[in-house]
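Case study.
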Amino acid sequence: MIKLYDYELSGNCYKIRLLMSFLGIEYTPELIDFYPGKQHKSKEFRTVNPLEQLPVIDDNGFVLRDAQAILVYLASKYDSSNQWYPRDDAAKLGEIAQWLAFADAITGSSSAARLHDALFYHEIDLDAVRASAHRLFRILDEHLFFAEEVGQNWICPGDCPTIADIACFPYVMLSEEGGISRMTYPALRRWCDRFKRIPNFCVMSGVFPAGPSDTA
Amino acid sequence: MTTALQELWYPVASSTDLVKRHVYQAQLLGREFAVWRADDGYVNVWENRCLHRGVRLSIGINDGRELKCQYHGWRYANRTAGCTYIPAHPADAPARTICNNTYPTQEAFGLIWTGDAAQGDLPDMNGFENYTVLRPIPVNAPQQLVALALAEYTFADGCQSTTDDDRSITITAKEGQSIRFFVQPCDSNLTIIRGLLNRKALGSDRISILKHHNFLLDELRGQIEAKATNLETPAPMVAKIAKISQELSEIPSESGDPRVADLRVQLMKKEMTAEGVVSLQFRAVKGKLPTFQPGAHIDVHLQNGLIRQYSLTNGPGETDQYTIGVKREPDSRGGSVAIHDDLREGDVLAISAPRNNFPLRRDALHTIFIAGGIGVTPLISMGRTLNAQGLGFEFHYFVQSEDHAAFKTVMGEFDRALTVHKGLAPDETGTKLREILNEPGQARHVYICGPGPMLESALEIAREQGWADEAVHFEYFKNTTEIDDTSSFEIDLARSALSLTVPAGQTILQVLRENGINMGSSCEQGACGTCRCGVIEGEVNHQDVYLSPAEKTEGKSIMTCVSRAAGDRLILDI
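After joint prediction, the assembly is written out as follows.
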């Protein structure tokens, strides 16, 4: 069974939990006390990931770090529907990679602001990371507005969400914990509602479920 | 005190922002709004704040009829913003004073308009009968800076700009294309540009127009924000949040008859819904109708002076009208006959605000409704509430024949949960009730309303089958008990520090009123529960049909309209 080095309040770990839930993959969580225990900086954990970051998975001895990389691996190996990371669609794989990098930038800004406000990372330059999160949200909101205009619901074109949506969702949804309001990003707020209505969606602390859509 | 700015209409959203089952977050002059469209199309603009713990309602759940706060599940009704349910108090009806602040709203030209105290007309939109709403652009800068920059906006050859009295900015190009901009001052340093083009663009033409202006406005935003960063950032605006509306915070005025009927409604629709049963639909003559909860009833003051109670059949969020059902009872005192024969569409009547003495729990795992004849009305409202929330229930409706089944159309939504039992003799009804009630259990609740004999037999059967008293809820529509008012006794009023004598032939309620104690009442025959009063000491001779047997035994409450002291003296908590 897959082992997930996990921390409940980590949005990056949440990305992996989301995909596992969507795909119905069972896993064993290996809980790492990120705060206040700083267990990710322990000698034992450094042998798992020298970058001292979560998440990491161990799939029968194959160890992989980095949330985006793990999404690519799990979707490629375990998604029989070929929806989350369509292996034969070059253009779409390119777009997904583009947005995975974008998601990493969201982590670097929105998540950093949250670490400052919620987990006492006082060395972070709060104004700078908030400003860059807003810059990214403006771009994503505009992208989603024009996607909606042509009847598209997700970050990459097509009828289904991909791992690009999963990679962007957690630190968009948790942005207010870092003092980053989403009020002026209405298309982004609607996309969050749609994302929460994906079958088998799961929550984490600070992320509420959506109500039923009108299709019921 | 409102300022001139607060009386203006501002656009705060595009119509297309309010997708189904979504809650949009807006801000105007420092005040935040939760904006949501109900399934009936109504657009709600509310204070973005739950009355309970102040959590933003914009993160709440729009279920199409009500808005539910994410924090502790308080529910607020479409249109009225009145609280309809508090999960921590599942057996109680929330007070009518729990009502969120709502703001004036209009939807026009593809935009949602509001304002703190907006009044008068929307800006004149001559020449914009056909329009395309541009993508709104938020700018981190004060309103004045944005307005000045917009006057210089150029999107084609020969653009001319005019600034109107209503503060809109219109840019007209040589070939007749026009853009009208409105600026929405969210806060002192946050402004949203909302633009309309004076023609309806479709398909790829629409996309390229939207992209073209989005690009130009984004450029403009860059310039404005660069300027704004060189200025000192103004202090944020602070919107005052009114604690509670004036009307709700006032103590109701004293009146001789506390059965106040301060609502004026007009009969919009009167139609037969079953053999001998008429359905009546009322709308407010002005303003909104107050919030109701499932199980609530209203007093209807008839033209012949009679006051009658009728339960609302409305579903959740169905707040633009009240619907009641009235059965013709030729042998009664004339209320129903007057309604059937004399009341016409268009007539104006006085009614009371809804009162709920028959609250519905929404925390049951399973709910059983048992309706007999016209007793179906409060249960329809309850069933529709559970149905809308996808909570499990079964609905048993006992009628004389198919022709006697009322409100069939609206009950169609119950689908397979509904069973209509037709033409059963009393013993057959008993057998059927035994079947229906054969499985009492944890978090299972039953609600019964119907004619006296049927109700009593249902209560008896429920007790025999082991249903707990707290799980069996019932409402009589009349009290057929022969009231014995021959006793005479003393009442001591603990809070009013008064001692009074209730003589034979008078009720406690009458004596209270004669002595200036204003006690609410409704049916005045011991069926509705409105005139309930706490008992501190003394034994009660209960003659009502409202209290449950357990409550009667406990002796802590009395229905002052019919019940009396069993001994010489009662101490009442009033």
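Observations recorded in class. Chain B has five domains: 1-122, 124-250, 263-351, 366-475, 489-572. The domain at 489-572 of chain B is CATH 3.10.20.30 (Ubiquitin-like (UB roll)). We will return to this complex in the next lecture.
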